């Protein structure tokens, strides 16, 4: 009977260890607009120098309505900017914001 209990205890430990491994292997999905893995340190510094922030302090001046805004490509959730590399939030802002010019 002792060997049965010991065997059961080992089995339970093995099962719980596998559950822990699975929990650690699953990483939360990354927000593509916050993924700077392909952006160099120089490009990140350029963003900072331009005063880029995720949320515009000026309600009517956002990257999404800036002349320099590059809209998201098919299937993407964030756009880009003509001045620097990397993802850009529609709601973001930098000191080089310029109103869009609509030709008509």
UniProtKB/TrEMBL annotation:
Q: Which GO terms describe its molecular function?
A: 4 iron, 4 sulfur cluster binding; electron transfer activity; metal ion binding
Is Metal-binding among this UniProt entry's keywords?
yes
Coiled-coil intervals in this record? none
> Record's superkingdom?
Bacteria
- The segment(s) forming the High potential iron-sulfur proteins family profile domain are 33-102
UniProt keyword terms in alphabetical order: 4Fe-4S, Electron transport, Iron, Iron-sulfur, Metal-binding, Transport
Which GO BP terms apply? aerobic electron transport chain
InterPro entries, sorted: High_potential_FeS_prot, HIPIP_sf
Keyword Ligase listed? The answer is no
Q: What is this protein called?
A: High-potential iron-sulfur protein
State the organism named in the record: Dyadobacter pollutisoli
